[in-house]
Write a structure and sequence with these properties.
Length: 368
Protein backbone atom coordinates (compact mmCIF):
# COMPACT_ATOMS: atom_id res chain seq x y z
CA UNK A 1 0.00 0.00 0.00
CA UNK A 2 1.23 3.48 -0.77
CA UNK A 3 2.07 5.61 2.23
CA UNK A 4 0.21 8.86 2.77
CA UNK A 5 2.10 11.82 1.40
CA UNK A 6 3.78 13.96 4.06
CA UNK A 7 2.12 17.33 4.63
CA UNK A 8 3.90 20.25 2.98
CA UNK A 9 6.41 22.21 5.02
CA UNK A 10 4.58 25.10 6.61
CA UNK A 11 5.50 28.63 5.54
CA UNK A 12 4.75 31.21 8.23
CA UNK A 13 5.20 34.97 8.11
CA UNK A 14 5.14 37.28 11.11
CA UNK A 15 4.46 40.89 10.09
CA UNK A 16 5.17 43.60 12.66
CA UNK A 17 4.57 47.29 11.97
CA UNK A 18 7.52 49.46 12.99
CA UNK A 19 6.85 51.67 16.05
CA UNK A 20 3.27 51.67 14.85
CA UNK A 21 1.45 54.33 16.89
CA UNK A 22 4.42 56.69 16.86
CA UNK A 23 4.96 56.14 13.13
CA UNK A 24 1.33 57.01 12.38
CA UNK A 25 1.76 60.24 14.35
CA UNK A 26 4.97 61.11 12.48
CA UNK A 27 3.33 60.32 9.15
CA UNK A 28 0.34 62.56 9.84
CA UNK A 29 2.31 65.45 11.36
CA UNK A 30 5.45 66.25 9.34
CA UNK A 31 6.79 68.40 12.20
CA UNK A 32 7.27 65.20 14.25
CA UNK A 33 9.45 63.41 11.72
CA UNK A 34 12.97 62.76 12.93
CA UNK A 35 12.05 63.77 16.48
CA UNK A 36 11.70 61.57 19.59
CA UNK A 37 7.96 60.95 19.82
CA UNK A 38 6.29 59.33 22.83
CA UNK A 39 2.66 58.31 22.46
CA UNK A 40 1.22 58.80 25.94
CA UNK A 41 -0.87 61.14 28.00
CA UNK A 42 1.21 63.39 30.18
CA UNK A 43 0.88 63.00 33.92
CA UNK A 44 2.13 61.07 36.92
CA UNK A 45 -0.18 58.13 36.27
CA UNK A 46 0.34 57.71 32.54
CA UNK A 47 2.31 54.98 30.78
CA UNK A 48 3.94 54.93 27.35
CA UNK A 49 1.82 53.38 24.59
CA UNK A 50 4.59 53.59 21.97
CA UNK A 51 7.88 55.32 21.27
CA UNK A 52 9.49 56.29 17.98
CA UNK A 53 12.92 54.91 17.18
CA UNK A 54 14.39 58.33 17.92
CA UNK A 55 12.98 58.06 21.47
CA UNK A 56 14.05 54.43 21.87
CA UNK A 57 17.67 55.50 21.53
CA UNK A 58 17.25 57.09 24.96
CA UNK A 59 15.85 53.91 26.48
CA UNK A 60 12.16 54.82 26.22
CA UNK A 61 9.97 51.72 25.87
CA UNK A 62 6.29 50.81 25.75
CA UNK A 63 4.56 50.32 29.14
CA UNK A 64 7.14 52.52 30.85
CA UNK A 65 5.80 55.21 33.22
CA UNK A 66 5.54 58.46 31.26
CA UNK A 67 7.45 60.35 33.97
CA UNK A 68 10.42 58.02 33.56
CA UNK A 69 10.28 58.44 29.78
CA UNK A 70 10.38 62.20 30.27
CA UNK A 71 13.43 61.89 32.50
CA UNK A 72 15.22 59.65 30.01
CA UNK A 73 14.39 61.88 27.05
CA UNK A 74 13.66 65.47 28.15
CA UNK A 75 13.27 66.62 24.54
CA UNK A 76 10.62 64.01 23.72
CA UNK A 77 7.39 65.18 22.10
CA UNK A 78 4.43 63.67 23.95
CA UNK A 79 1.39 62.93 21.77
CA UNK A 80 -1.89 61.59 23.20
CA UNK A 81 -2.94 58.29 21.58
CA UNK A 82 -5.62 58.29 18.91
CA UNK A 83 -6.80 54.69 18.65
CA UNK A 84 -9.47 55.50 16.08
CA UNK A 85 -6.76 56.41 13.59
CA UNK A 86 -4.57 53.45 14.55
CA UNK A 87 -7.45 51.01 14.07
CA UNK A 88 -8.21 52.47 10.65
CA UNK A 89 -4.62 51.92 9.50
CA UNK A 90 -4.65 48.43 11.04
CA UNK A 91 -7.69 47.56 8.89
CA UNK A 92 -5.81 48.71 5.79
CA UNK A 93 -2.87 46.49 6.67
CA UNK A 94 -5.14 43.52 7.42
CA UNK A 95 -6.77 43.85 3.99
CA UNK A 96 -3.34 43.73 2.35
CA UNK A 97 -2.54 40.50 4.21
CA UNK A 98 -5.87 38.91 3.33
CA UNK A 99 -5.15 39.46 -0.36
CA UNK A 100 -2.46 36.79 0.00
CA UNK A 101 -4.03 34.32 2.43
CA UNK A 102 -7.20 33.89 4.44
CA UNK A 103 -5.10 32.39 7.24
CA UNK A 104 -4.25 35.59 9.12
CA UNK A 105 -4.03 35.55 12.92
CA UNK A 106 -3.98 39.09 14.35
CA UNK A 107 -2.06 39.47 17.61
CA UNK A 108 -2.73 43.18 18.05
CA UNK A 109 -3.35 46.24 15.91
CA UNK A 110 0.24 46.17 14.65
CA UNK A 111 1.22 42.52 14.20
CA UNK A 112 -0.08 39.25 12.82
CA UNK A 113 0.88 35.75 11.76
CA UNK A 114 0.15 34.53 8.23
CA UNK A 115 0.20 30.96 6.96
CA UNK A 116 1.18 31.21 3.28
CA UNK A 117 1.86 27.51 2.71
CA UNK A 118 -0.70 27.78 -0.09
CA UNK A 119 -0.85 31.51 -0.77
CA UNK A 120 -3.83 32.61 -2.83
CA UNK A 121 -1.75 35.28 -4.60
CA UNK A 122 0.22 32.62 -6.47
CA UNK A 123 3.64 34.08 -5.66
CA UNK A 124 6.48 31.55 -5.87
CA UNK A 125 7.70 31.67 -2.25
CA UNK A 126 6.88 32.89 1.25
CA UNK A 127 9.73 35.36 0.93
CA UNK A 128 8.11 36.82 -2.20
CA UNK A 129 4.81 37.12 -0.33
CA UNK A 130 6.47 38.93 2.57
CA UNK A 131 8.22 41.31 0.18
CA UNK A 132 4.96 42.02 -1.64
CA UNK A 133 3.11 42.71 1.62
CA UNK A 134 5.79 45.06 2.90
CA UNK A 135 5.92 46.93 -0.43
CA UNK A 136 2.15 47.39 -0.55
CA UNK A 137 2.02 48.53 3.09
CA UNK A 138 4.60 51.18 2.28
CA UNK A 139 2.73 52.23 -0.87
CA UNK A 140 -0.76 52.39 0.63
CA UNK A 141 -0.06 53.61 4.19
CA UNK A 142 3.32 55.39 3.89
CA UNK A 143 4.47 53.24 6.84
CA UNK A 144 7.03 50.48 7.16
CA UNK A 145 6.70 46.93 8.42
CA UNK A 146 9.25 44.28 9.31
CA UNK A 147 8.66 40.61 8.55
CA UNK A 148 10.05 37.24 9.49
CA UNK A 149 9.64 34.11 7.37
CA UNK A 150 10.13 30.69 8.94
CA UNK A 151 8.68 27.16 9.22
CA UNK A 152 6.67 28.03 12.36
CA UNK A 153 5.29 30.87 14.46
CA UNK A 154 7.99 30.83 17.13
CA UNK A 155 10.80 31.26 14.61
CA UNK A 156 8.89 33.74 12.44
CA UNK A 157 8.38 36.04 15.43
CA UNK A 158 12.09 36.01 16.27
CA UNK A 159 12.93 36.61 12.61
CA UNK A 160 10.66 39.65 12.27
CA UNK A 161 12.65 41.40 14.99
CA UNK A 162 16.00 40.52 13.48
CA UNK A 163 16.34 43.41 11.05
CA UNK A 164 13.99 46.00 12.49
CA UNK A 165 13.02 48.56 11.43
CA UNK A 166 11.88 48.04 7.84
CA UNK A 167 13.59 44.67 7.51
CA UNK A 168 12.97 41.14 6.25
CA UNK A 169 14.67 38.05 7.62
CA UNK A 170 14.20 34.45 6.48
CA UNK A 171 14.96 31.27 8.46
CA UNK A 172 14.85 28.25 6.18
CA UNK A 173 14.25 24.76 7.63
CA UNK A 174 17.86 23.69 7.09
CA UNK A 175 19.09 26.79 8.96
CA UNK A 176 17.03 26.39 12.14
CA UNK A 177 19.56 24.63 14.37
CA UNK A 178 22.50 26.81 13.36
CA UNK A 179 20.41 29.96 13.80
CA UNK A 180 19.12 29.05 17.25
CA UNK A 181 22.28 27.62 18.82
CA UNK A 182 24.12 30.90 19.68
CA UNK A 183 21.01 32.89 20.64
CA UNK A 184 20.72 34.07 24.26
CA UNK A 185 17.88 32.22 26.01
CA UNK A 186 16.26 35.61 26.59
CA UNK A 187 15.34 35.68 22.90
CA UNK A 188 12.86 32.84 23.43
CA UNK A 189 9.35 34.32 23.78
CA UNK A 190 8.15 33.86 27.36
CA UNK A 191 11.65 33.94 28.87
CA UNK A 192 11.70 37.17 30.83
CA UNK A 193 14.46 38.51 33.06
CA UNK A 194 13.45 36.33 36.02
CA UNK A 195 13.39 33.09 34.00
CA UNK A 196 16.56 34.08 32.19
CA UNK A 197 18.27 34.51 35.57
CA UNK A 198 17.08 31.07 36.71
CA UNK A 199 18.38 29.45 33.53
CA UNK A 200 21.73 31.23 33.70
CA UNK A 201 22.11 30.08 37.32
CA UNK A 202 21.96 26.54 35.90
CA UNK A 203 24.64 27.35 33.34
CA UNK A 204 22.13 27.83 30.51
CA UNK A 205 23.00 31.06 28.73
CA UNK A 206 22.27 30.19 25.09
CA UNK A 207 19.68 28.15 23.23
CA UNK A 208 22.47 25.68 22.48
CA UNK A 209 23.04 25.24 26.21
CA UNK A 210 19.33 24.68 26.67
CA UNK A 211 19.24 22.07 23.92
CA UNK A 212 21.79 20.05 25.87
CA UNK A 213 19.46 19.58 28.86
CA UNK A 214 17.15 16.55 28.97
CA UNK A 215 13.39 16.99 28.90
CA UNK A 216 13.01 15.35 32.32
CA UNK A 217 15.27 17.91 34.01
CA UNK A 218 13.52 20.90 32.46
CA UNK A 219 10.07 19.54 33.33
CA UNK A 220 11.14 18.80 36.90
CA UNK A 221 12.43 22.34 37.38
CA UNK A 222 9.90 24.34 35.36
CA UNK A 223 6.85 22.12 34.85
CA UNK A 224 4.96 22.52 31.58
CA UNK A 225 7.06 25.56 30.67
CA UNK A 226 10.11 23.29 30.85
CA UNK A 227 8.59 21.13 28.13
CA UNK A 228 7.97 24.24 26.03
CA UNK A 229 11.61 25.29 26.50
CA UNK A 230 12.74 21.85 25.35
CA UNK A 231 10.71 22.18 22.15
CA UNK A 232 11.74 25.77 21.45
CA UNK A 233 15.42 24.89 21.83
CA UNK A 234 14.90 22.50 18.92
CA UNK A 235 12.90 24.97 16.86
CA UNK A 236 9.69 22.98 17.34
CA UNK A 237 6.37 24.83 17.33
CA UNK A 238 3.30 23.01 16.05
CA UNK A 239 0.79 25.76 16.81
CA UNK A 240 -1.31 26.51 13.73
CA UNK A 241 -2.11 30.00 12.52
CA UNK A 242 -5.66 30.51 13.78
CA UNK A 243 -7.66 33.20 11.98
CA UNK A 244 -10.61 34.87 13.69
CA UNK A 245 -9.93 33.38 17.10
CA UNK A 246 -12.92 33.71 19.42
CA UNK A 247 -12.61 36.13 22.29
CA UNK A 248 -10.95 34.52 25.31
CA UNK A 249 -11.01 37.44 27.73
CA UNK A 250 -12.43 40.94 28.18
CA UNK A 251 -11.27 43.45 30.76
CA UNK A 252 -11.35 47.10 31.80
CA UNK A 253 -8.79 48.98 33.88
CA UNK A 254 -8.52 52.32 35.63
CA UNK A 255 -5.41 54.14 36.86
CA UNK A 256 -6.10 56.50 39.76
CA UNK A 257 -5.04 60.11 40.15
CA UNK A 258 -3.72 59.15 43.59
CA UNK A 259 -2.97 55.82 45.23
CA UNK A 260 -5.87 54.30 47.17
CA UNK A 261 -6.30 51.60 49.83
CA UNK A 262 -8.02 48.35 48.91
CA UNK A 263 -11.20 49.07 50.84
CA UNK A 264 -11.70 52.35 48.96
CA UNK A 265 -12.07 50.75 45.52
CA UNK A 266 -15.77 49.82 45.62
CA UNK A 267 -16.99 52.51 43.23
CA UNK A 268 -14.16 51.91 40.74
CA UNK A 269 -14.67 48.14 40.73
CA UNK A 270 -18.42 48.51 40.18
CA UNK A 271 -17.90 50.95 37.30
CA UNK A 272 -15.31 48.69 35.67
CA UNK A 273 -17.53 45.63 36.12
CA UNK A 274 -20.31 47.41 34.25
CA UNK A 275 -17.94 48.39 31.44
CA UNK A 276 -16.55 44.85 31.17
CA UNK A 277 -20.05 43.36 31.24
CA UNK A 278 -21.20 45.54 28.35
CA UNK A 279 -18.12 44.60 26.30
CA UNK A 280 -18.60 40.89 27.03
CA UNK A 281 -22.25 41.00 25.91
CA UNK A 282 -21.14 42.19 22.46
CA UNK A 283 -19.17 38.96 21.95
CA UNK A 284 -22.33 36.82 22.13
CA UNK A 285 -20.41 34.36 24.31
CA UNK A 286 -20.56 33.43 28.00
CA UNK A 287 -17.65 33.81 30.43
CA UNK A 288 -17.10 31.58 33.43
CA UNK A 289 -14.14 33.20 35.22
CA UNK A 290 -13.99 36.58 36.96
CA UNK A 291 -10.60 38.26 37.32
CA UNK A 292 -9.56 41.12 39.61
CA UNK A 293 -6.30 42.87 38.71
CA UNK A 294 -4.42 45.26 40.99
CA UNK A 295 -1.21 47.23 40.69
CA UNK A 296 0.40 48.54 43.85
CA UNK A 297 2.06 51.93 44.23
CA UNK A 298 5.36 50.06 43.82
CA UNK A 299 4.14 48.67 40.43
CA UNK A 300 3.68 45.12 41.74
CA UNK A 301 0.88 43.43 39.75
CA UNK A 302 -1.52 41.00 41.39
CA UNK A 303 -4.39 39.02 39.89
CA UNK A 304 -7.06 37.05 41.70
CA UNK A 305 -9.68 34.94 39.92
CA UNK A 306 -12.73 32.84 40.64
CA UNK A 307 -14.76 30.45 38.51
CA UNK A 308 -18.16 30.23 40.23
CA UNK A 309 -20.54 27.29 39.79
CA UNK A 310 -22.69 29.43 37.48
CA UNK A 311 -21.43 32.27 35.26
CA UNK A 312 -22.25 35.80 36.46
CA UNK A 313 -25.63 36.74 35.02
CA UNK A 314 -25.42 40.53 35.31
CA UNK A 315 -23.04 43.43 35.75
CA UNK A 316 -24.06 43.58 39.40
CA UNK A 317 -23.23 39.90 39.91
CA UNK A 318 -19.87 40.41 38.21
CA UNK A 319 -19.17 43.38 40.48
CA UNK A 320 -20.02 41.44 43.64
CA UNK A 321 -17.66 38.62 42.72
CA UNK A 322 -14.87 41.07 41.85
CA UNK A 323 -15.40 42.92 45.14
CA UNK A 324 -15.24 39.63 47.01
CA UNK A 325 -11.92 38.75 45.40
CA UNK A 326 -10.31 41.49 47.46
CA UNK A 327 -10.35 39.13 50.44
CA UNK A 328 -7.77 37.02 48.61
CA UNK A 329 -5.29 39.90 48.44
CA UNK A 330 -3.08 39.14 51.42
CA UNK A 331 -1.08 42.34 51.61
CA UNK A 332 -0.84 44.75 54.55
CA UNK A 333 -3.78 47.11 55.02
CA UNK A 334 -1.37 50.00 54.52
CA UNK A 335 -0.74 48.96 50.89
CA UNK A 336 -1.85 51.51 48.35
CA UNK A 337 -2.92 50.77 44.79
CA UNK A 338 -2.50 52.81 41.60
CA UNK A 339 -4.62 50.63 39.27
CA UNK A 340 -7.55 48.23 39.38
CA UNK A 341 -9.02 46.09 36.63
CA UNK A 342 -12.02 43.78 36.28
CA UNK A 343 -12.03 41.03 33.68
CA UNK A 344 -13.97 38.06 32.37
CA UNK A 345 -12.29 34.95 30.96
CA UNK A 346 -13.01 31.36 30.06
CA UNK A 347 -15.46 32.22 27.30
CA UNK A 348 -17.54 29.58 25.53
CA UNK A 349 -20.54 29.51 23.25
CA UNK A 350 -23.93 29.51 25.03
CA UNK A 351 -24.84 26.10 23.62
CA UNK A 352 -21.51 24.67 24.77
CA UNK A 353 -22.23 25.93 28.26
CA UNK A 354 -25.65 24.30 28.20
CA UNK A 355 -24.09 20.96 27.24
CA UNK A 356 -21.58 21.27 30.09
CA UNK A 357 -24.41 21.98 32.54
CA UNK A 358 -26.37 18.95 31.30
CA UNK A 359 -23.40 16.72 32.08
CA UNK A 360 -23.79 17.55 35.74
CA UNK A 361 -27.54 18.01 36.06
CA UNK A 362 -28.90 15.45 33.59
CA UNK A 363 -30.42 12.14 34.64
CA UNK A 364 -28.13 9.27 35.42
CA UNK A 365 -25.07 11.44 36.02
CA UNK A 366 -23.54 11.23 39.45
CA UNK A 367 -21.33 13.90 40.95
CA UNK A 368 -19.69 11.39 43.27
Amino acid sequence: MAEDAAPPQRKIIHVDMDAFYASVEQRDDPSLRGRPVVVAWRGARSVVCAASYEARKFGVRSAMPALRAERLCPDAVFVPPDFTRYKAVSRQVRAIMLAHTERVEPLSLDEAYLDVTAARSGLPSATAVAEAIRARIREETALTASAGVAPNKFLAKIASDWRKPDGLFVIRPRQVEAFLTPLPVGRIPGVGKVMQGKLEALGIATVGDLRGRPLEELQQRFGSFGAALYRRARGIDERPVEPDQPVQSVSSEDTFAEDLPLDALDAQIRALADKTWQAARKTGRVARTVVLKLKTAQFRILTRSLTPDAPPASAQALAEIALGLRTRVQLPDSTRYRLVGVGLAGFSEPDELAVQADLFTGSGVSGE
